[in-house]
Predict the structure.
Amino acid sequence: MITLERLTKRYEATTAVDDVSMIVEPHTITTVVGTSGSGKSTLLRMINRLVEPTRGRVLIDGIDTATEPAHRLRRRIGYAIQGLGLFPHRTVAENVATVPRLLGWDRARVHRRVHELLATFELDPARYADVYPHELSGGQQQRVGVARALAAEPNLLLMDEPFGALDPILRGKAQDDLLEVQRRFGTTIILVTHDIDEAFRLGHRVAVMSGGRLLQHDRPARLVTHPADPFVSQLVGATERALRLLALVPASEVAQAGAVEGPTLPGTATLREALDALVWSGAAAANVADAAGATDRHVTLASVLAHGRRASE
Amino acid sequence: MSTGRQSPLVDPLGTVLVIIGALGWLTLPLVLFKANRILPGVPHTLAEVLPTPFVAAVGATLATAAYIALRVASPRVRLATALIAIAVIAVALATAASALTPPGNRVVRVAPGGAFWLLLLALGLLATDAIARLRPGPLLRVGWLVAFFAAVVGAMHTGYFDDLSILREHAVNAARFADEVRRHLWLALGSLFAALLVAWPLGIVCHRLPRLQASVLGALNFVQTIPSIALFGILMAPLAALAAAWPWLASLGVSGIGAAPAAVALFLYSLLPLVANTVVGLGRVSSAAVDAARGMGMTSLQVLREIEMPLALPALLAGIRIVLVQNIGLVTIAALIGGGGLGTFVFQGIGQTAMDLVLLGALPTVALAFAAAVVLDALADLTRRVPR
């Protein structure tokens, strides 16, 4: 568990982060969203002490992070940033091995771990271990950046706009990969972004920041149904509240037994995608495939609409 | 490729070089004969000294070289032609020197004339242009350099060129020549290394503390504007005073004149290029890489050693190149205050109006500076293999 207690950072006249308190549950993804200058990056950088707080403290599993030398703290926290910061003079394998080497792992263990990670991130070690970052595509570089951040198996991973430089298609793929990695390793992730769609898609919890203050920190659905501040409603978008809610619910969760005449949705589809398919096809119900590809369950238009209907609450 | 092969009717650089060479060959003497080393030379053309077939062969070689410089595009052919032609005029010069020198006479001097120097200039430019067009890799360039020096030294050792004035002067000063070359290099390299020990830390501090940058670079800039002779002069008084006050310093070689003020001045001149290039090099290192390195838990020293300095290396080497070439030239001036080095021959030669002795100091200085530039450029290329 990560606890931020009344964190404040002042630079002479300006206050970058103003009295932020927040609790991050282990094994979850928390996205911090806000406009530029909202203090979200500064908040993130105070967690691994790249920025020292003016006031307040950060506890990781109940222990104050200030009690340990900053570089030791950082070695057990993963860190990935926009633009990646891959070392151009080091090979992919050397880049990924950075933190394990700093921790003094023996060669064989480093080698094993690097190869395992590259394989996890679909970078064939035989082909890519010894090439330099500039020889990779943007998407591959991004995966190396995340692999490097995860190299020493950190329990906590900090990410500052990690997908900011990717085009929309690569970005979607990178987000899926990150969700998969988080499910597999159970890493606690705090991710800073200015993209509200990304924040909703990835975050178990979403923290909204503006002008250095934390406006709301809650489950994404609560941000839509119970915005704590006009800025939050504006950020979430007053004209697509229902659609945002539908996008948070997997169709498979709502599906009932029996096959119907109508379009078939993949097992990963959300209710938003189900609605789109139903509107497009004009059908009243759609089948939802399960992991094996069987289509003996379905969602109806009425049940989809019910999930987006909150005005009465 | 075919468009690349389509050479213009005449090569523009070739035209200029042929004009230079032809002007020299037609209007100036190839050799100068002096009854002794301080008399002005009596000009001779090649035809006055050597048998006609020999002169015709040299003329034919140069005419062929001129044609190739004008009409042939292939850099390999141009390079080979230039090198062969240089060898031919060098041999012609040496043969003429032997022909003009009475047997056993060690007083007369036969020096290269204006035609020789202009031809050497034109052919040298032809060769360097051809090498530049070939774009050889860094190791190959160093290989060429070594081969060229080996060829020149080898040619000297054959004895065939011994009657040429410069080699006569070398023979007279042989023992001192080796000493002065060593001393020259020692002064140039020693002051460079001493400056590196100060300049790199200073550059790193300036990079980390931008407020310090302007004042440090300003001060070093000021030093750089002091003319070298003036700086040698300024240093004489304080160093002499130091040596007088502390005899142990004097026993270490510190004195108002000699190598000490020369080394101190060279050290001071070296600082600006080294510090400035360190600051620029570190400033160009990707801030994302530095942020990531710190964020993953490198200490400040590890970031410097493993990320910043390796990525700044091309700029650091560029600084070393500037300083080394500059120092090799400046050491020549140091001879004025008794610093030694090849400048000794230059100033002695000027004093005695013996131009051949001046050349004995000047030509090796140019060669050393050239070699230093080629070697350091090659090193910089090798480290730039990985683009930022």
Summary: Chain B has a mean pLDDT of 87. The longest strand of chain B covers residues 31-34. Residues 4 and 68 of chain B are 17 Å apart (CA to CA).
